[in-house]
Amino acid sequence: MLPTLTSAAPAELQRSFSSDSVEKTRTPSKKDSDADFDHEKVDVNEVPFDADADTDSEVKVIENAEEVAIQIVSTEDHPELPTWTFRTVFLGVGLSAFGAVLATIYTFKPQNASVSQLFCLIIAYVLGTAMHAIIPSRGYFRYLNPGPFNIKEHTAIVIMASTASTVAVAMEIIAALDLFYDIRLNAAVAIFQIFASQMIGYGIAGVLRQLLVYPTYAFYPSYISVVNLLQSLHFGNALNHKRRRFFWIVFAAIFCWEWIPQYPFPLLTAFSIICLADNGRHDFVRNLFGAGSSNEGIGLLSFSTSWTLITQGSPLVWPLQTQVNSYLGMALGYLVLTLCYYRNVFGGRALEFMSTSLFYENGTTYDQSLILNADNSLNRTALAEVGLPYYTTTYAISQMTYNFSLGAAIVHILLWHSAELKSAAKHAVATVRRFHDTVEIDDPHYREMQKYKEVPAWWYIALFVVSLAIGIGCSYTTGTPLLPWWSILLFTAISFFLAVALGFITATTGFNISVKYAIQILASFVHPGQPIANMYVNLYGNSTTFQTLYMLQDLKLGQYTKLPPRATFAAQMVGSIVGSIFNFTMMRSIVDANREVLKDPTGTRVWSGWIIQQYNSASVAMGALGTELFTFHKRYYLLAFAIFIGLLFPVPFWLVHRYTRAGSPVNRAARYINTPILVLYIGYLPYSVNGQWWSCFVIGFTSQWWLRRHRPGWFKKYNYLLSAALDGGSQVIIFILSFAVFGASGNAVDFPYWWGNPDPDVLSVDRCKATS
């Protein structure tokens, strides 16, 4: 079992290694990380890929994180290969622009989709190998074509493109200002603000390298498939030839299939026998079993055949323990969300079942302009006449569980990772004092990287200071500060500590925990009656945290593929600059063309503003009306106090694990439960579409349990490659469909309505009752 958040990464992982062969012996204990497996010795010097073993009986089952990082990912390196070539720059900048545009389009889609690194990787490989074949390699042309397209060029391009295609929270906030407050920032100010918010996180990431990049326990499971594909494409032995053939067969198959559920036969994106039997007669059936249309239902027993949706659950990549905890949370969520809605918890029975908008008590959309002054501050006289807004019950429950999760995550890290935190703090202090990195890490990939010049810590510190100054300056360009300087400093400091706690979760489980609701509630008390300030706190209290995590993951990708650290640094900088420009440009185009649809609480099958609406709803409810809605004994006070209640959740499980006999069923169960993930998933469903989760359940157990245990040879060679092929093929066809028929180019072309594509005014996609 791969290690996840429920277990501590043992301190032995940071022991230094000698120049001779080193064995890491993991001794079972009450604090051991991989509780549900026997621990075996792992030779960290062994070259991975026990891939030449063709029979499963010859292959050792992967049990923990170290074995994933050592047996799936190769330590092979070729330092003579060039990194910065014409191909790197040309394709890196071009795909950065391409990825930024596509990611921005996805932000305004009803599906919770994103541009994966695998998508960028595949396009880069096709174009890079084509350039090598087409461009002459003799004479002066050798500077344009220095040899075969190599893994270092490829990785640098992927990091650039994926950095650009990670949509900045700043862009989403700027869109919310435009849509709901009619505030259009100057283009230069907006772009600089987007870039600065990303680079603040990058500066923090540099400080956290010793804790969340270099060690083996920080293995980022969602990135294993990316590294596995890169090495399969570029390390040319017979086995990799088989892998490449396997990859392209799967890629072509999903490319040919995915357009069917996405366009002519959308019923296949959420196939529910219950909905088919009900055929649109009952609201209750739609709310509980519906899952195909935006904000339709929570999808109990709904299956999807669309990989674009299924991949959101990462069933081939996430460790089984992570998936099991998420499925347990969803199982509780079906019960909690349905009971709370029908028992009128938070007064939401008359409202939509699912929506991120604000409503009047009778269910109509709340008009925030009636309670705000011209400067967007709260008009209390008008508020007394209009009344307070309401969240939908499911959205309120979701925010509460996210805050439970944040509190639980902080305590979980303190209980299970105290040794690593102490060690990292010592190294961080030494780094800041000396302005260079002096740390020994017991990791074979890190050891291979010692031949390259590291990025000095002062580079990251300087980048952090400059970006913070730019962010503060941009906040003061509109006359009235969007957010005062002292608040920017306060929430940036909070982000740093959150990045440490949440970074452990992402590094060991591949799972991200959102802090935006907690940050906005805190902001409602720091900036009462100021909705714009509340919204902008997201840039420094939420966005900074997640930009830090994204940058850390790319640093780990560079370590896995042996990309020189300074090349990784430059690639992330270039990607951030290009992404900032194209994020803003594409956002402005989409918002101008689809304003009314994006402001609608439910949206359409093609466009939806549900992501942007979250920021607006929070700015009004938490910013303008924080004291009226979230203080003690007010309607939503439990949402604020949920953070403190969540602090208690991990304690009983840790105590049981600590004081019961090691290896006993109770002991094993206690350390298997991951409270931050479990409680978050109780409220994970009332967004977007939910037809994929039961398919994820089946695929996840097949991959991470049956294949990993009973077909370990196939699992090592093909499981992560399969994930890469499915992600790549599906995202290529989605990009084509977005511009060809979904309206990204301006005009949508609807497929004719039929039984498998019902009229949305009559039935939802899965033939449940249509949403209002």
TrEMBL record:
Q: Which UniProt keywords apply?
A: Membrane, Peptide transport, Protein transport, Transmembrane, Transmembrane helix, Transport
What stretches pass through the bilayer?
84-106, 118-135, 155-180, 187-208, 220-239, 246-263, 324-342, 457-479, 485-507, 636-657, 719-744
Q: Name one GO cellular component term.
A: membrane
Single GO MF annotation:
oligopeptide transmembrane transporter activity
**Chain intervals with Basic and acidic residues compositional bias:** 21-42
Give compartment(s). Answer: Membrane
Any single biological process term in GO: protein transport
Ranges where the record places region Disordered? 1-42
In the bilayer, the protein is annotated as:
Multi-pass membrane protein
Tell me where on the tree of life, at the top rank, the source sits: Eukaryota
- Major site of localization recorded for this protein: membrane
The record's section on PANTHER family has:
ISP4 LIKE PROTEIN
Q: What protein family does this chain belong to?
A: Belongs to the oligopeptide OPT transporter family.
Tell me the protein's name: OPT superfamily oligopeptide transporter
